[in-house]
Amino acid sequence: MRFPHRRYHLLAVTGLVATLALTATACESDDRGTGDDTGAASSRTADRDGDGIPDVLADRLEEHGVDVGGWKNGGWKDWDRDKWLHEAKEFVNPVIEGLWDAERMRGAGDPGKTVAAQDASAERGVSDPVPAPVEARAEKTPYHEHAGPVGKIFFDSPEGAMVCSGTVVSDVNHPGESNLVWTAGHCVHAGGEGGWYRNIVFVPSYNDLSRSEEELAEGAPDAEIAPFGQWWADWAATSDEWIAGGSEEGGAGAPYDYAVLHVRPETGETSLEETVGAALDMDFSAPSASEAATMGAWGYPAAPPYNGLTMCRCIDRPGRLSLDPSLPTMYRIGCTMTGGSSGGGWFRMVGGEPRLVSNTSIGPADNTWLAGPQLGEAARALYDEMSTTYGDR
Question: Can you list the domains of the chain with their CATH numbers?
Fold first, then answer.
């Protein structure tokens, strides 16, 4: 199936050979390299109208017949395929204040629309045996103390409001001041048959105390629903392979199903990392499954028996999943998380420190395992481009 749906000690996990303690630490490096083409970067981010849409993108939108001025006033609801922005440089997501209120967030992501079947029998190539299911466990509350960098992603699609999961990651060019969020490609772009989703917002530590639907409906304070506020993606990047070959079942784009967002607060100026108090470092070494003794996946599963209101985790020893001999091998772990957990980070320990090594992408119809892409040099290049070009916006 597809799954769009202050420092703290965080993501502490037990149950394996030893305790896997994922403790977030801000990057201490003073290397603030900004790349060799700062003039080009400035031209790509210039915004003469102050509407949150870079000038170069506004011009491209007009070429596509999109009324930039009317976008915030409901023009984004037009999903005409001829105007559904598809190309990598056509992402647009201006802030629409108040759009994602508590009720709209709570109602996002009908699991019947966010989950599509992935036939596990279609596996070809070299795969390890199917792992035994690992029952997802609820993260400790309050989330902001135990797993602050993990959050929920909300976005609009032609089928309505949807949900995914994501993680605050460090920015090597802006240590301690990151505005980057790692997630799955299918949480931001529909793949070969569609384009960029709209109104993409990241909410770290969503529903901080894991309130029930009834409690939320009665009215929970904003400080509990979104303890760190709402963060709008002002730029997004995913792999060319996902844009060209991704599908509702993953398709040939599944091994490349990753994305990085650059976000800004709906109100205020402080960076995401400073606000949350932590960010996770990336691991682009693409270790083999045998090298990574343990991996842990975090996210907000939304399809039954879950409801998208509770942050969960699974820990397991990864194996290999090969969908086709011509495609890169994916990681696979046992896990019962369902739709909505997509994009949630996978972590492993490197030198005693946590590193984000993958993200949830696909799983079977019976919700017994999850698979995620290996993050190698192509993923690193995507991350570096986002950091260099948009990191200081």
Answer: 9-390 (2.40.10.120)
